[in-house]
Amino acid sequence: MKMLVESLKRMYKKGTLTKKQISERVAKGSISADEYEYITGETFSGGDTE
Question: Cβ(9)–Cβ(36) under 8 Å?
């Protein structure tokens, strides 16, 4: 995994990032839908997150 993905996962676990913020990264192309799933443990639904 990319260093960015590992950093995002740590921040998500700490509560400093939301699923919505992670999904925005997918929309921008910074991370893939698979990486979103790795970070959140949920399948990417195209941005329909909390």
Answer: no
